[in-house]
TrEMBL record:
Its main location: cytoplasm. This is NADPH-dependent 7-cyano-7-deazaguanine reductase. It comes from Cobetia amphilecti. NCBIfam families: QueF (TIGR03138). Substrate binds at I96, E97, S98, H234, E235. It holds the Pfam family QueF_N. The active site is at C195, D202. PANTHER family: NADPH-DEPENDENT 7-CYANO-7-DEAZAGUANINE REDUCTASE. Residues 1-25 are annotated as: Disordered. GO terms for molecular function: preQ1 synthase activity.
Amino acid sequence: MAHPTAVNVPDEARPETLKDAPLGRESAYPEHYDASLLFPIARAANRGPIGIDDAALPFVGEDEWHAFEVSWLDEAGKPWVRVARFRLPAASPNLIESKSWKLYLNSLNQSRFPDQAAVQATLERDLVAAAGAPVEVRLLKLDDSELDVGRLPGECLDDLPISVEHYTPSPELLSADDADIVSEDLHSHLLKSNCPVTGQPDWGSVWIRYRGPRIDRERLLAYLISYRQHQDFHEHCVEHLFVDLMARVKPESLLVMARYVRRGGLDISPWRATADLEAEARASLPLRLSRQ
């Protein structure tokens, strides 16, 4: 996959939490292993504006990452290549900025390790230190069946004939029929948001499982499309979706999962859910879509 064109963003145009981040800057690719490349970002700074108390989260969840460009040398100098799967808990104090993660992983390319177990232990140690919480790490062979492509459950909304006027988050579009309580799965491949620094597009698919008042599907699709010009990280977009749906539709149970398209060898797939759907969310993973 081609790397995106470098975008140099002046410091004064950066969000405060990204003043020192490598995102949006020209970066030399490292020659040797360097854990200091990882750039953590406190989740609380982005949660506060949408009413989420970082000390009392209204959801459970994870950020699942796949890294398709993981390679290192063994002690004889022979290269090895794997796909890495990482899972960060939503309760971790920090997320990790994606470009810094890519640079960090590339720092392994010319570094020697005795075996795969040593690579995995190194990744776990460094990512735990950056995220501030346990991080699950798996290294998969390229023909591993866990990397097979799947499909989102439920009905796709994308063919509904709607008119669209909103391209920034518009929760007022959401509505539901309080007299009709249902359990259903809905999904859309029309999710798009933009990087908060470079403005580059982030394409994704979103899956919603809920029990509660029946959501108006046309209005839900219009709401999902309203993120099209919104600038935020993938993780915070999913949390924004979750918070808006809980506030406007008031479901008894809710799961929101986004599967974002790979960029720079990394894809990010956050999910947030009410506690009663945590087991169902985990049972649905691993899940990769054709665009990932």
